[in-house]
Amino acid sequence: MSAETLTRTRVKFCGLTRHEDIAHAVALGVDALGFVMWSPSSRSVDLDQLASLTARVPAFVTRVGLFVDPSADAVEQSLPHLDLLQFHGDETPAFCAGFGRPWIKALRMRDGIDLPLEAERYTQAQALLLDAYRPGTPGGTGESFDWSRIPATLAKPVILAGGLSAENVAQAVRRVMPYAVDVSGGIEASRGSKDAREMTAFVRQVALADAD
Length: 212
Hints:
This protein has 212 residues and is α/β, with parallel strands linked by helices.
């Protein structure tokens, strides 16, 4: 069996705020769970909530903290509860790398963005998360972007985000062949509350695309 045959697309559920949603995600075999540490977001959690929610996450499921131009103190206070950091603002590479944790850099697909150059700039990142661009909004727009803008080869693994749902994620996986897919609004019943059926359908569609 070749290495290519063994390849699968990783799945990250983001914007988790409820214990029952975490339990269902874990049961589905989701690889990573995202917690929004940016207070303007309706999906944000505070430190106490983060501690409580992540305490239920078992081994081998990655706990990801999402930050937008945070202070160093804000990141440091969250570290005991996180395995991976995700930066969505204008953070410098040096800032992102300053916490002794693996990290990924989110890039919004604005006009004229040079992804190879950004990959070189954020060379220490574990991956680049590509999301839709809306002025003044750092992420979570529920909008997709033109996937053909992603180079066929990039120096960093690609995590595809932006407007994904069970309806289009299989197409996205077949078209982009990303390392991982990231979803929040596409599996929600309401902001911050996930829908178990949509969560299940999303994971099944990714698996179906991988099996092709």
